[in-house]
Design a protein that fits this description.
Number of domains: 1
Protein name: T6SS immunity protein Tdi1 C-terminal domain-containing protein
Strand content: 15-25%
InterPro entries: T6SS_Tdi1_C
Structural class: alpha+beta
Low-confidence stretches: none
Shape: globular
Number of helices: 5
Organism: Allorhodopirellula heiligendammensis
Mean pLDDT: 92
Largest sheet: 5 strands, antiparallel
Order of helices and strands: EHEEEEHHHEEH
Radius of gyration: 15 Å
Length: about 160
Amino acid sequence: MNPSDYLLPLPAIDWHSALAEWRWLLPPDCSPRHVTSFGDVFLVSGIDLGLLDLENGTFYRYCDIQTAIADALADDADADVLLYTKLAGELAAIGCDLTAGRCYHFKIPTILGGEFVVSNIATNTIDERIRFCGDFHRQIKDLPDGASVRLKFTDG
């Protein structure tokens, strides 16, 4: 596995706006450094590089900023899981390529029982995925495990 194959070029988006829905979780001084093919964001905060995990709604220290991300991922036994490499490979094999500024997303969030399968994947703009997941996790963060959640999707 070459970890850099699963990192996207940092898009020229309004990062302040994209991360606004995550203010309840993120430190105030963080800035984006890398984005994965599923939209998870590595953020610099002080001397640390943290990972904003969009599916789980978590932010945690990943490594120090002096460590090259490719080296940190290469040393991480769980990098295949973190980067969804198997799923990304399956998507690439069927021609589901990402265009600039887009990432994969789960149609049904995995936290709600969505499966890690190709049929549950679509693409979205990176900023919209970040905003949607932040808003979603902010709304459910205080719910007890097993609570019922109903999603209503609308156009527009």
